[in-house]
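1st attempt posting a full record on here, be nice pls
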Amino acid sequence: MTHEKASAPSRSTLVITAHAGDFVWRAGGAIALAASRGERVTIACLTFGERGESAKAWREGRSLEEIKEIRREEAEKAAAILGAEIVFFDAGDYPLIATPELTDRLVGVYRQTQPDIVLTHPLDDPYNGDHPAAARMALDARVLAQAIGYPVEGEVIGAPPVFFFEPHQPEMCGFKPEVLLDITDVWETKRRAMECLAAQQHLWDYYTDLAVRRGVQLKRNAGPNLGLPHRTCAEAYMRPYPQVTGELA
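the predicted structure (as tokens):
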């Protein structure tokens, strides 16, 4: 009698994003890579970016509810292309206010998804207070989700590593590219997801150029024998917590 070996549970990635487009520009490559490996990716989208990141729709005379629906559809299409699930909180942007209720909802998402890694914004951004607010709630909820006595349904989580994705103006946000992720194999997928965000079309080329620049840096730091293609694309990340490892690599 033969016994089939039980398959390992799929890894889980949780992305916590302030606005409907942020996860695409900043972490679309990481999301697509994880999904391509059959891993589960869940995006917790706190707002639609309806007030502060939808200027084109406002100039067209759209109502607030129409703009929310436009941004929802864009984000759903982008997430589907990347291979991720998306959950909308509709918490309101400009400003996004950190509240105990929102944090509780995030704790619930942590416990439901049991993430192996978490991607979110850095804690500093002098140009957009919504981003640090989202990051602060992401970190607070991560700690609370580990507490067995915290009264939110679901199993407690471990301590998943957190990666801050690159902000729009990294030099002003104290961001250093500590981790460079090769996204060359999924670049075209990320670009298609970016093109779902018609409300922010002016950013398509900006983030294409950034991916190429970070790819150049990746090649300079990767050593001579990786066989990287001439046009390498990458995303940059920071780590707020120490890396835990048994081997330096």
